Amino acid sequence: MTFPKEFLWGGAVAANQCEGAYNEDGKGLSIQDVMPHGIKTPHTDMPTEDNMKLIGIDFYHRYPEDIKLLAQMGFKTFRTSIAWSRIFPQGDDLEPNEKGLEFYDRLFDECHKYGIEPLVTLSHYETPLNLAKKYDGWVNRELIAFYERYVRTVFARYKDKVKYWLTFNEINSVLHEPFMSGGIDTPKDQLSKQDLYQAIHHELVASALATKIGHEMMPNAKIGCMVLSMPTYPLTPNPDDVIAVMKADHLNYFFGDVHVRGAYPGYMKRYFKENHIELKMEKEDEQILQNTVDFISFSYYMSVCETADATKKIKGEGNLMGGIANPYLPASDWGWQIDPQGIRYVLNMFWDRWQKPLFIVENGLGAVDELVDDGQGGKTVKDDYRISYLNDHLVQVGEAIEDGVSVMGYTTWGCIDLVSASTAELKKRYGFIYVDREDDGTGTLARYKKKSFGWYKEIIASNGDGLKK
């Protein structure tokens, strides 16, 4: 494996899944504070004690200890997000919350202390709750102005501390989870396609506007989009299944196409026409959309199949974006199918389509870990299954690089255990670092290095040479 010399090795978290301190130092409520069980059940009106994210892993208070551990692994970059409601508690505030700004000053300074480059997501499933309740989230065009105010504030504050920015996390997930992804309070089964795609249009304009502002305020910064990648294979060679795959891919590729090409593709114009969707666009929107991103980042966890045969449409358990389970692939404890070759496939597809640098900003295995004695008076997790998963995926990343794909870096998801977005569980663990907290709220919050901690440290130190094909 030959990884580029400047390859950005690291890991990723989201503010709402690790920080905790949901009501400290002036922070307002976000949509995550009323999602106690992830996306599986309807959200609540106010935070409830069973919401694990209210405390998370207490990263808000323990970040110096955690960043030090990441530095011990040799991280080149650390992906995190800014909690919008820490900066603008209601979302539509006129002035930012200084204490919120100060927290991220300290966090980014701590990263730089160890030579770790922050990679920052501006909106990672953390829409201020007030914007969801009062405006119905991104359905309302007013959110563009609120987002712009927030973006200008954090760009001005951190322009000398953050070089890499992402506008929205997994922006295409709004198709399936409109509340979590877009702060849309209208129940999913009552949300019209017209309103959904109007909300998407507002997000795309806001994303392009953030890219424009970022390039103006920070000429040396790189601004990227972020999509949920889920390569789709035809269930059979039947041409009907191949066309079904093409249509499914179009709905996901569309987000990247707009970010990279700066305009709506023809296939979506046909989709809008056939589904009686008429986007309300301001005269400046088309020009704003032409502010295209510097790179494309994405998450990769699984692939799916698609078919035109309605009798075979059996969804894979846990698949956020739908799709059909692949009969040739094993699955994780949560029903996510494991397909290392899929990451090589998606890297090649994205590169061939967009010809812009790619950044894998989420990939990992959620599993039930057992804390055991390490034989030296301490505790660890013997997570060979995680090592195997990550090794096999990274080998395929190396293959894609050999294919000629430009890959900027790789950040594993949940580099330290955190609360799951989909299920709001802590027992679904991804990290190299075990956090002693259970789903019933018990635990000391102590940190323990897993076996994979030492393995990843070696992979980073060798720039991928330690991978086993």
TrEMBL record:
One of its GO terms (molecular function) is beta-glucosidase activity. One of its GO terms (biological process) is carbohydrate catabolic process. The active site is at 362 (nucleophile). Keywords: Glycosidase, Hydrolase. One of its GO terms (cellular component) is cytosol. Belongs to the glycosyl hydrolase 1 family. InterPro entries: GH, GH_1_N_CS, Glyco_hydro_1, Glyco_hydro_1_AS. This is 6-phospho-beta-glucosidase.
